Amino acid sequence: MSRPFRSVLRCVLLLALAGWSAAPAPAQGWERPVRAPEAAPPPRRAAELPRRAAPAGRAEAVERLYGDSATRYSPRYGQMPAELFSQTLDAQVHPLSCLLLTLTPESDFGTFGEAATLELEGALRIFAFEEFLGGYLEGAFNLRLLGYLDNPGLEALPDVAAHLALDLATSWRFWNGWSLELRAAPGLYSDIAEPQFNCLATVNLHYTVHPALALLGGVTVRPDWDLPVFPNVGLAWQPHEVFRVEAMLPRSRVLLAPLRSLALFGTLEWRNFDFALQDEPGFPEAFTVDEWLATAGIAVGTGEDTRLTAEFGTYLSRELRADVASDSTVPIAEEWLVRIGWHGAF
């Protein structure tokens, strides 16, 4: 065997020996390595859920509208991520308490006579919890007193009727743009001399299309009322901090606020609500106020968190519905109205 051939053979044998000594021994029986199962990831809290992908230009839009693209402050709901902000839930100005007085001069109540109308409305937030079952909970006291100055000849019509209710509202927001709002308003809805209990319930869905635009759809269930299911639909659009549009039922509004302490606004509102009456033979069980009205007004800031408002408007249609004599509907003259208000803690 030649010297070169023996040298090559020696190299091959040395390489084979090295490879055999480095190879792992075949596993047998319990020696076979077992791969441990991967541990399930711990459940995530709502705050840790991944955020939805932001549409192109969203960060710039949030920055332009709100100044801070990381968080947004809502007068009603406090601090929150900007992606969860909703124009239908979070108006730039949200009064946490208010008191409104509306006067309508003497109006013809069909063939029954004339009467002036005085209405007092109020709201006061009593409590709020920013962390409640993963959402938000607040409670407010709502007040409406409707009085007829000089009865227009309707014996069943009370001098004063009232809504006195505790409005409980809770909401949940989701990263995909949807929000769910539930409300319950147990209280008295009746002639103030004959208190009768009822409970209104509301379910609303909100969808944020864009930081400046959100949609609303829902209903309010009102047992034993003339219109037992009342719609809540529309949109809120605020392309700039000084201009806002709310095209909704039951109320639409256009707001122009060139200054923090000054705003001009116009409203178109459909009001439909009931008052239960005394349960006596020959008297109706309830009467319904159904009216459309339009107003224009001004809001002036009187402090850091308070505003005074003044509105002037007119009724576009007015009806009083009840089983009165042989007619269940009493048309009311479409007079003008004036409303003044105080709004606090924005």
Strand proportion, as a percent range, falls in over 45%
Q: Give the fraction of residues assigned to helices.
A: under 10%
Round the Cα radius of gyration to an integer and report it. Answer: 33 Å
The N- to C-terminal Cα distance equals 104 Å
Assembly type of the chains comes to single chain
- Cross-sheet strand order for the largest sheet: 3-4-5-6-7-8-9-10-11-12-13-14-15-17
Largest sheet: 14 strands, antiparallel, barrel
Mean pLDDT: 81
Looking at the overall shape, the CATH architecture is Beta Barrel
Total number of domains:
1
Descriptive notes:
The protein has helices at 3-22, 58-66, and strands at 71-74, 78-81, 97-108, 114-132, 135-149, 160-173, 178-191, 197-210, 213-221, 229-240, 243-249, 251-259, 262-276, 286-301, 306-324, 327-331, 336-344. With 346 residues, it is mostly beta strands. The strands form 2 sheets. A 14-stranded antiparallel beta barrel has the order 3-4-5-6-7-8-9-10-11-12-13-14-15-17. The chain has one domain: Outer membrane phospholipase (ompla), Chain C, CATH 2.40.230. The N and C termini lie far apart (104 Å). The longest helix has 20 residues, at 3-22. The chain has 2 helices and 17 strands. Mean pLDDT is 81; it is low at 11-56.
